[in-house]
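Board notes (copied after class):
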Amino acid sequence: MTDVDYLVEHFTPLQLRREARYADEKVKNIKYGLFGDILSDNVWALYSWWYGFARELKEAIKITEGRQPKVANDGKYVRVDVADLKSRSDIIAVIEAHGVELRKAGRNFIGLCPFHNEKTPSFTVYPGQSTYHCFGCGKGGDVISFLQEAEHTDFMGAVALLEKSV
């Protein structure tokens, strides 16, 4: 397994972009900021490592952002645009379909968290951002991560469930 394969397998595009920015900053600091015009052998080796790492991160970002998950459909695999699927889904309807009573609180909705026992509502749904967060247990995310938690399934299973409901 190459370094790029490892990065693709273990990190999200957001994490990879964050690390790539950090690596680019390190490269700039080493080349221009900290050591002036002269690079010794040790500093050059450090610069080369960070430069190579930044390139690997950027390659991994291209791979992860270009990949779309596949969902089984009658024995055939079809490509699903996850971003489009999320935008078409109504997070309020999905959460209420799983037995959570939500009530409007300003722009957001609140209710009892389905992931732990509580008496006071700490589960907040942000429909403008299509996200949720529980201030009691700390769970949060988007409609797909909610389905993963509620249905005890993986990412592909949650995408398949969401596709059926939309």
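Comment from the instructor: The chain has two domains: 3-66, 70-165. The chain has seven helices and seven strands.
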